[in-house]
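Q: Could you write out the predicted structure for this multi-component system? I'm mainly interested in how the pieces pack against one another.
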Amino acid sequence: MLRIPCPYCGPREEVEFHYGGPAHVARPELTASDREWSHYLYFRQNPKGPYRERWLHAAGCGRWFNVLRDTVSHEIHRVYLMGERGE
Amino acid sequence: MQRYSLLRVLGHALRRNRHWGQAWRSPPLRKSYDVVVIGGGGHGLATAYFLVRKYGVRSVALLERGHIGQGNSGRNTQVTRSNYFYPVSSSFFDHSLKLYEGLGQELNFNVMFRQDGLIALVHSVHELESARRWANAIRMNGVDAEMLDEAEVRRLVPILNAQPRFPIVGALMQRRAGISRHDATVWGFARGASAYGADLIQNCEVTGLRRSGDRITAVETSQGVVGCERVVMSVSNHCSVLAGLAGFELPITTMTLQAMVSEPIEPVLDPCVISSAIHAYVSQSDRGEIVMGGGADVFNSYRQRGSFHVTRGILAAVLELFPSFSRLKLMRQWAGAVDISPDTSPIMGLTPVRGLYINCGWGTGGYKAIPAGGDTMAYTVAHDEPHPLITRFDLGRFERGALIDEGAAAGVAH
């Protein structure tokens, strides 16, 4: 179970959140090849270590944000707003 | 290999069981092999076994980072079934079920396969409609499936909740489905592979894959470099990491799936019972433990530790179906990291790197496929072309849009 620091509400239990999968996945142009399109739809970075993902504070403020979390230790390194790159 | 038999057991008993040999050899890693199998789980071991036993490959090494069968093969809930919706899935998984039916004889090792069936409960009229469609599809695929009414369900599973919150209006049953002992499957394949000449190397982590052009030439490991012509990746949750070493990407997400067992009790539950709506599956092992599982944790993780609220959700669902289990002590809870593919079907076959073959994406249901996964992957490696049963499970299907979406049809529990 994670304890996620919502940038708007502060730290809350994981059960208050919905998971949004990987962050910063950009939709390709409509002229994209089948290969590019399939990579957009299905292929995901699946790193063992730091991972950028999206969470929705569904049972709180109802807002989306990004999280940089380690997939081994589950430690949350950084929380940043939608539209930011979190560098 | 010392064959196991009644006479052998009696003979060793007379000598106070002090002279049983090791079940498999532990040879040193050689400089080169024809085929290297990465991953000492069920699929990797079965692949090594069929390579040496059936397809005549002489020189095979299997590399395992930790110990044999300590990953998902040692963490699953040992259910085997073949009631899949699409013909391509049905034919593959039924091949696996048939191999399980003869596996004890094949391996000379009792895997305790017990075909008491699998019952998928139906809780509403709408679910009944889709279950009937599912049953018809399975029968069209040539696999056994039958619809049960509530009375028949209760006759087969008398301890089901008499007044459930979600009424039981029927069930879909596959009678040939069953459970076996997962450790025995692992040990049986390890012993067999070793006996027919494969080298099983434990505590040997793969750290790199060497290529010459687009061809694989060697595997770098913590015990040195191994030259080889062909490599099979059979590492479930770490497949993306390994594919990264080889220079390509996979459509895999690694997540956490947990399961748990109660203290052992007298036999009370013959078939495996699944409820997709309540999100739980339950069986009783031959040791008497009630084995329980449910859905996966939602986020990416390699940690092998499940969240407590998911544990609680699974237990609540199980107790809704079987209130009498509320008095049982929970003996163990554990989690594995599983490799989920976009369509919940496995990815098997060739890769962009020549001589490198992949077997992954089993997600929450790889145990049932161990014999067929090993058989078809061994064929694929030996012939350098996909086995006829797995051609459509290739990596390229995502580019073609030819997904095999069992996610909806296969239900919660694989």
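A: Regarding packing and overall arrangement: Residues 68 and 77 of chain A are 6 Å apart (CA to CA).
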